[in-house]
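Deviations from the work plan: none for this task. Representative record:
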Amino acid sequence: VDTIDFFTPIEGQLSSVEHMMRAQAEDRQIDLSNALDHLLSAGGKRIRPAITLLVGGLLAGDQNKLITLAAAIELLHTATLVHDDLIDGSLLRRGNATINSQWTPAATVLTGDFIFARAAKLAAKTDSVAVMQLFAETLAIIVNGEIIQLFDRQVQPGLDGYKNRIYAKTASLFELCTAASALLCPVNNQVIESMHWFGRNLGMAFQIVDDVLDYTGESSQVGKPVGSDLRQGIITLPAILYQIENPADPAMLDVISGNDLSDSRFDQLIEHIKDSGAIEKCYEIANEYIKASQQSIMGFPESTYKRSLLEILAYIIRRRV
Amino acid sequence: VDTIDFFTPIEGQLSSVEHMMRAQAEDRQIDLSNALDHLLSAGGKRIRPAITLLVGGLLAGDQNKLITLAAAIELLHTATLVHDDLIDGSLLRRGNATINSQWTPAATVLTGDFIFARAAKLAAKTDSVAVMQLFAETLAIIVNGEIIQLFDRQVQPGLDGYKNRIYAKTASLFELCTAASALLCPVNNQVIESMHWFGRNLGMAFQIVDDVLDYTGESSQVGKPVGSDLRQGIITLPAILYQIENPADPAMLDVISGNDLSDSRFDQLIEHIKDSGAIEKCYEIANEYIKASQQSIMGFPESTYKRSLLEILAYIIRRRV
């Protein structure tokens, strides 16, 4: 799937989003400005701004406000990544050096804070109390999720815990994209509610596929070793489903207890998980979320926006990186 | 001056602010909840919430919104302190252990982020777009100031640089207290503009006195050695005024160049600054800000709120801690 396909109806606006994000540090301290450039140049596929703009197009919202919202959300996402990488001690993200690999913790914290502040300023520029409230609520959900993960690392989640975790980590931000976008459009509460679920279900599927790719992806493409989550003691859906079917596997029990495993035991456990049918079951669950997400927009008349949103749903399941 | 005096007209509301702040982590992760309790128990005189509520009383604003705003601002202040202490590596604040002295950088960053998020949520609860915009703008000013200080540590500010720095660090938040409070009250733009200047000038004086107390305070009361700013290479108003009068003092030039000084040379330089008349000049400048601040509220009819605000202005100059 070529990601450029679903960007077509909003290419112009996406350029404006890009420009607006980069403008946030232009008149600022030069190291900071360079850091923001580095972060944004390295930065992903802009799937969050794209979804924000496409929902806004579907619901005929004000272009300028939607562009501002999309920039605010992508900056919020960028800020959380800067602090995340510091927290995890990650040196690379998508093959690029992280801020914390090059700067002190002090500079990294402040860079993240600066990007948060600019994201909040842009969110405030939408002039919508409801958007700002949702923005603040989403930040609280994301940070709360990270705190639970950091402090309660030993408490391994079952299925429900996993769902809560990926909602906080990923789906809440996609929900912000779609619901805040709807809040800027001339639509009723029922449509806004549908858009909440559209983004939330899409985000749940997105993170499940992400967690599967950690097992199945080419390590050269994903940029980290196969099974890196499990090797760090992070138990995601493939391992949870494997554990349900194989409750007595001693290697899995050791991981759950936080015991150290040799590399070869990890290699073997990861192979067992991949061969167990857990990956296929993960895709079934992701597909259920995608179907629920499709339902939220099926009722709208055909348009390039709707087509692109459906293409994004298909892309989320099929992507290999 | 007994600080309790000026709290009298708003004692009940201050209790509500305290309660609201502590409630922000009640249903959350237990370590986080304890950390917030620790921070708030250790925390200061609540002068920012007091000023917010007193201005709101003076201008007859809605009580519930003012309480929410005051809690949001004090939490924003608390969050910046958590990240500041991490950045400076401070182990104590007001004689209490800092979060970063007890936790990892990761946990400290997230605790600050969590408090930011809750502050933003409360700010959004005021239902005022203008308040939220000012809130976001203030966060951006504070963080930008910290970034300049961190990255451009070698660039020593003259008087203008100093004023920019203390505006970003301190006065901008006092300006938020008074201006956002006015935005929640039934007043015209001229009053809102006056309240901007009231808080800004008050905050400038507050920080100048703070910087003087670093030279003149009892180290047991201030909680750090006399002249600790200068010993860390931070050149505040007393040293700036001294340098203007004594441009060739070699010890001062060494500090400006970032050279290491022995403790005894520092001791001597600090004594020279204290004996130079610079401290008295600092108080004159602080007094000018206080007078400008008084002017902003002199026109209002007498009330307990006005009296308390004038007492706070007097307290800011006279305080010894």
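The mean pLDDT of chain A is 90.
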